[in-house]
Design goal:
The structure is a single chain. Helices cover 51% and strands 17% of the residues. The protein is α+β, with helices and mostly antiparallel strands. The chain folds into 2 domains: 165 residues, Regulatory protein AraC (Jelly Rolls, Sandwich), CATH 2.60.120.280; 112 residues, Arc Repressor Mutant, subunit A (Orthogonal Bundle). The strands form 2 sheets. A 5-stranded mixed beta sheet has the order 1-3-8-5-6. Helix 6 packs across helix 8. The termini are close together. The model has no long low-confidence stretch (mean pLDDT 86).
Length: 288
Amino acid sequence: MCEIKNISCNEVAQNESRFAIYTTADFLKFMQKLNVPHRHNYYMILLNEKNQGSQLIDFVECHIAPLSITCLHTGQIHQWLDYSKIEGFVLVFESDFFALRYQNYQLSEFSFLTYRHKQPYIKVSEENFNHIKSIALWMLKEFNGKQNNLEKCLRSLLNIMLIDLNRLFEPNTKNAEFSQSLQLIHHFEELIDKYYKEKHFVKDYASLMHVRPNYLNAVCNEVTNSSAGDLIRNRILIEAKRLLIHEKKTASEIAYELGFVDNSYFGRFFKKYENYTPDGFKKKYLKN
């Protein structure tokens, strides 16, 4: 079993700003330390311009192709696998870095930085990549230059990059009604991430949001093509799998931590959606 490492942004950014940008060549020293499973307390954006590689993100091997963008959100289990030849940029930042300027404009506005995108990976055209790259180069110049109002400038550039990335991940034009639905989903996802260990039912979240369960479910189906219950279950299941593989805990201990009344109920829940018992999943994964 590989015990999970918890990596803080300060370890990678090597500053108190909770933000850093590197070329992949300069980031290589961190990749060599992080070629074992680890969990981030920060967001990471990889812009790969040339060559190929691979990484593991929450039990799925993710190919790193030329002209590709990979975005990891906080809490995901990550492992660099093949990375020595890729060429591009790596950004790391904590939510607090962004929120210090945009208090009422949360990172959850960007769907590719939430649990809705289990594997937030996209290949883009050379034109689109070069546009994002131009922002990265501006960021890198500012980050290394350390001029006046450095953090203000970096936050503004980060905001521009995130808006442009969101257009690539969510290209369809949305009307005002859809935008309101999206705001509801953002709130729902934030509540799930906060309460998934203690609240397992749609009605619990609907009550917190002051809406009816049927309405919440309808909005989830419209926006995400998943039911409200699916979003809750997916968050519980991904955490269960993380704990099974990377923590030295029994299935009973994990069941208790995730708020299940007993181990047998947790076992039935897990098998229903994963087709394996918790112990069976662990054995299969570690064998592979």
